[in-house]
Amino acid sequence: MKIELKRTGDNFAFEAANPEGNKMVIDTSAANGGEGKGFSPMQLLLVGVAGCSGIDIVHILKKQRQEIISFEIEVEGLREKVEEYSIWKEITLHYKLKGKIDKEKAERAASLSHEKYCSVSKIIGHTSKINFTVTVEN
Questions:
Q1: Could you write out the DSSP letters of every residue in the chain?
Q2: What residues make up the domain containing 104?
Q3: pTM of the model
Q4: How many structural domains does the chain have?
């Protein structure tokens, strides 16, 4: 897979494009000299964990014939300084589902995602503790 980034302007913003032509903006905060025009690389890691596990959960629940009306994910990270850089020390995801969904199946799907299927969780899990909660509204 090839992702291309092109710097936009004179500061730290980049536009990233994937092979399918989808684009997104990456920048840093004003406090770090950027303009806050896009996601920071560290924010993208949180998005990656949430997106990867969300896809897994939908896939698993669809196989189990659970009816998902809506699905939202909140993800929060706690950073820790290590030498000159920082890592995500702890990541907490809150999955909020609505529909005809068995809560135990949703919790099991989330667990399977992080323990077995989600490549992003497996990579980030080497330095971060990943926690999650599941709320189901029928």
A1: ---EEEE-SSSS-EEEE-TT--EEEE---GGGTS---SB-HHHHHHHHHHHHHHHHHHHHHHHTT-EEEEEEEEEEEEEEEETTEEEEEEEEEEEEEEEE--HHHHHHHHHHIIIII-HHHHHHTTT-EEEEEEEEE-
A2: 41-137
A3: 0.93
A4: 2
